[in-house]
Specification:
InterPro entries: Costars (IPR044302), Costars_dom (IPR027817), Costars_sf (IPR038095). This protein is an alpha+beta fold. It has one domain: Orthogonal Bundle (Arc Repressor Mutant, subunit A), CATH 1.10.10.1540. Strands 1-2-4-3 form a four-stranded antiparallel sheet. It has five helices and four strands, in the order H-E-E-H-H-H-E-E-H.
Length: 97
Amino acid sequence: MNVEEEVERLREEIQRLGKLQDDGSYKVTFGVLFNDDRCANIFEALVGTLRAAKRRKFLTYDGELLLQGVHDNVEIILKPKPAAAAEATTAVPVGTS
């Protein structure tokens, strides 16, 4: 699996484990991701995949390096896909054109 595939799988897992926010983003803590059996089986290097996703601006979290135990409560926020974000903010009332 290449980095792009891993980042996409990470997106899916954050959506599965996280909570949907009003802005279309998903929020999950590092501890939940790290301790999930399915994530442990998918990601050989979860922290590396998180950093790759952060560099690509798919998600955000405080700090650079997340460590088990120390950073279990750090929130990871998966940003909404651009199309989903645009749909949520540009709703046009029916009959107004």
